[in-house]
Design a protein that fits this description.
The structure holds two protein chains of two kinds. Chain A is an alpha+beta fold. Chain A has nine helices and 27 strands. Classes of the chains: A alpha+beta, B mainly alpha.
């Protein structure tokens, strides 16, 4: 299931190539290599913005500071990951990065939002900071402006962050992902410049001088199995009842197994989808919990009607999505910033298909990371979201 | 006068986006994600639900739309 969101003015011409980089090794070596690769990709051009994605094995300060110092005129944002990649190579334990040339952005602004004192308060303070520079966010032209959000992946705040951002700028495309920590599920971080937060969100807004599209793709089909959430606890992302029955029991029946067989294999193949325009916002089950409930990786509200999904071809669906986006951009892509779910990474691991996945972006400067959740309008799972520049 | 059901509320919202209908789509997406109501295809069991109507109205209000 694929969706591209054209958000571009047709009058703008394609941009100069972005730069991407990937490296492994200790933080100092990996950072130096990434800086060198980005500068080589940019040539004589400056960067408007740089995003980097670092394994949790690296101390945030060892990467954020040197990268910011290397691009003094750019807005530099980053986060910890559950794996990182470029169009050429990927890793766990490494570092990837993407640089948008200054010629591709009329203006760029950024903020590191502190969520530790309350999500709404933190986002509103961040929005106020940005609005002091560019005026009301709701007045920004969504065909011109786009946001990139890197958000904490451990506190379960993504829905609230997206809601608060939506209140400030309901029409603006904000795309991104939740920071990871190599599956330790202990602590994630995000950064802007050399400032780092372990409970925050990094937001970069770009007034793009080149065409762009948002891509959202997940490799699932529906198969006429619909269930309604009849009891849930959104705060803990737990669904207790589906169709008035214990969630595990109803889910097992829907996917064709016994309740005692419900586990990671079924969850990976059969997440739930909140449908809009025929496409799912995927909600991935995490674990069965005592009392017959199922805990998810994102919020599902009581009353939501969701489709039980069935997995398809992850590489093929992603290729279709990227090709559709490329066509929308007139066949020219100058760079891609990608946010790929950790569950999709595990699927690619199992299929030994990372090379095929990266091959989809061959020839295009692309970089991204494997996330603890994906962002576009809201929070979702088992999806690839991305920002593709023409 | 405020709409008394979701269908009426959606019509009111559409009127606010007259001439820029495409811009209504992200608003509907955000409403779905925050309430479970798809304003573009309102479910029969939700159509007359007063509590849901209040929830949708509240979300729209937070986003700056009177409904």
């Amino acid at each position: 299931m694929t969706q591209t969101v054209p958000a571009t003015s047709e009058s703008r011409t394609p941009g100069a190539p972005s730069a991407s980089a990937h490296a492994t090794g200790v933080a100092a070596d990996a950072t130096a290599s990434v800086v060198e690769q980005l500068k080589a990709g940019l040539g004589e051009r400056d960067a408007a913005a740089v995003w980097f994605f670092a394994s949790a094995a690296h101390a945030a300060a060892d990467v954020a500071g040197p990268l910011s110092a290397a691009f003094p005129g750019a807005h530099v944002a980053g986060c910890s990951t559950a794996g990182e990649f470029s169009q050429v190579s990927g890793s766990t334990g490494g570092l990837s990065a993407f640089a948008l040339p200054a010629s591709s952005a009329r203006r760029t602004v950024s903020v590191l939002m502190d969520l530790s004192g309350g999500v709404r308060e933190g986002v509103e303070a961040g929005v106020a900071s940005l609005e002091a520079e560019v005026g009301p966010l709701r007045d920004l032209d969504p065909h011109q402006w786009v946001g990139v959000l890197l958000v904490d992946g451990m506190h379960g705040d993504e829905e609230a962050v997206n809601a608060a951002l939506g209140n400030a700028a309901p029409l603006l495309n904000v795309v991104g992902g939740s920071a990871g920590d190599d599956l330790a599920f202990a602590e994630t971080w995000v950064s802007v410049g050399d400032a780092v937060s372990t409970h925050g969100a990094a937001l970069v807004l770009i007034d793009s001088a080149v065409p762009f599209s948002v891509v959202r793709t997940s490799s699932f089909r529906t198969f006429d199995k619909t269930v309604t959430v009849t009891k849930a606890d959104p705060a803990t992302r737990t669904v207790w009842e589906l169709d008035g029955r214990p969630a595990v029991e109803a889910y097992a029946e829907a996917v064709g197994c016994r309740p005692d067989e419900v586990g990671s294999e079924q969850f990976m193949r059969h997440p739930l989808g909140l449908m809009m325009d025929g496409k799912p916002f995927v909600r991935s089950p995490q674990q069965a919990v005592e009392g017959g409930g199922i805990k998810f990786y994102c919020e599902i509200l009581e009353g939501m009607q969701v489709e039980v999904l069935d997995s398809t071809d992850i590489v093929g669906e992603t290729r279709n999505a990227v090709e559709a986006t490329t066509a929308e951009l007139g066949g020219a892509v100058s760079g891609a910033l990608l946010f790929n779910c950790i569950l999709r990474r595990l699927d690619l691991d199992a299929q030994n298909a990372h090379g095929d996945f990266r091959g989809i972006f061959a020839g295009v400067p692309a970089a991204g990371f494997h996330t603890y959740g994906e962002t576009w309008m809201g929070h979702m799972n088992q999806t690839l979201t991305g920002l593709v520049f023409g | 006068m405020a709409a008394s059901n979701l269908e009426g509320l959606y019509q009111d919202l559409q009127s606010q986006f007259a001439g820029r209908e495409l811009m209504l789509s992200p608003v509907c997406t955000r409403v779905l994600l925050r309430t479970g109501v798809n304003l573009k295809a309102i479910r029969p069991d939700q159509a007359g639900d007063a509590a849901l109507l209040g929830s949708v109205r509240s979300v729209l209000s937070e986003m700056g739309y009177a409904a």
